[in-house]
């Protein structure tokens, strides 16, 4: 059967809404031509035919793998030109696709990737920025927002980017509002989580000699993902960064409402917990020895900790809860 006859028969089956007709969409991959984004292979009774259908105009075309996709690419260009002419009259009218976003990720053509790469290099060179800047989370969000904004304009539109980029003064005014919003979200998060820790870090700038203290909040989610939030970075001019000095300055950094929680902690319970954790410190010190091997001590010390985490009758309810929690990980 020649191609023309086969196309005629398949077209008739399509017109009759035959159940024997189905469409196969080739999977997207870097090695596969992008023209397959616009075509589907015709299947009759589940068997692929050497006939493809244009997804836009539904025209049937003959296709063989050994012949390549040049003819399909030419049809795609002509089909786009026709659709652009027909849609120019309704460019100001909302389309149904304006009301939902596709979850399908489009493959970026190599030509666009090269232009973005050159633009990144020019950005780093002209503004004297570190190379890591273009891989930061903030830069990625900015780039994504610019890509999303570009979807609202056609390729023939001329857009002055300065109209959409706020001035440095405007940006600085919005930093405080964004900070307050994130601070409120973090406060709500801390209320809902049970366990978290606050980490202190100190460093001194080599050239200025100024010392800083950084505070970060860190916690682990139920699916074992670690989240880290920077609470602040502050000038710290005390030479001895001892625990007593750090504690004296915590009240300046943390809100007094949260600091009041510390004052109501049961001191006897705190002492009991610290005494319970002493054995863990001893085990860590034994396994951290560098002068002799410690691998043979792992199993007996692990069993020692398991026995130590067994709840006792005289333990308080809080300590029993802690032992049960630690017993799951030992």
UniProtKB/TrEMBL annotation:
Keywords: Metal-binding, Nucleus, Transcription, Transcription regulation, Zinc, Zinc-finger. Its main location: nucleus. Gene3D superfamilies: Zinc finger, BED domain-containing. The keyword Ribosomal protein does not apply. GO terms for molecular function: DNA binding; zinc ion binding. GO terms for cellular component: nucleus. InterPro entries: RNaseH-like_sf, Znf_BED, ZnF_BED_domain_contain. It comes from the Eukaryota. Residues 30-86 form the BED-type domain. It is found in: Nucleus. This is BED-type domain-containing protein. It comes from Rotaria magnacalcarata.
């Amino acid at each position: 059967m020649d191609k023309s006859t086969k196309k005629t028969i398949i077209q008739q089956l399509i017109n009759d809404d035959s159940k024997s007709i189905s469409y196969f969409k080739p999977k997207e991959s870097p090695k596969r031509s992008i023209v397959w984004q616009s075509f589907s292979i015709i299947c009759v009774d589940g068997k692929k035919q050497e006939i493809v259908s244009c997804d836009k105009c539904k025209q049937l075309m003959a296709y063989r793998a050994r012949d390549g996709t040049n003819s399909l690419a030419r049809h795609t260009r002509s089909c786009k030109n026709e659709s652009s002419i027909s849609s120019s009259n309704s460019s100001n009218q909302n389309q149904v696709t304006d009301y939902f976003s596709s979850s399908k990720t489009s493959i970026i053509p190599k030509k666009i990737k090269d232009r973005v790469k050159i633009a990144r290099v020019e950005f780093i060179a002209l503004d004297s920025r570190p190379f890591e800047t273009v891989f930061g989370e903030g830069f990625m969000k900015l780039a994504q927002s610019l890509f999303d904004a570009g979807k609202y304009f056609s390729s023939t539109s001329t857009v002055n980017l300065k109209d959409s980029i706020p001035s440095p003064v405007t940006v600085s005014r919005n930093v405080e509002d964004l900070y307050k919003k994130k601070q409120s979200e973090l406060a709500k998060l801390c209320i809902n989580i049970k366990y978290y820790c606050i980490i202190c870090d100190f460093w001194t700038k080599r050239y200025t000699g100024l010392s800083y203290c950084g505070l970060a909040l860190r916690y682990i989610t139920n699916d074992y993902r670690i989240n880290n939030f920077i609470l602040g970075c502050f000038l710290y001019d005390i030479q001895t960064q001892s625990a007593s000095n750090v504690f004296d300055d915590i009240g300046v950094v943390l809100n007094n409402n949260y600091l009041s929680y510390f004052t109501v902690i049961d001191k006897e319970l705190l002492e009991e917990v610290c005494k319970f954790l002493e054995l863990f410190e001893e085990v860590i010190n034994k396994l951290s020895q560098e002068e002799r091997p410690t691998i043979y001590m792992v199993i007996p010390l692990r069993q020692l900790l398991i026995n130590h985490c067994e709840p006792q009758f005289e333990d308080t309810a809080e300590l029993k809860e802690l032992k049960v929690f630690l017993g799951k990980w030992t």
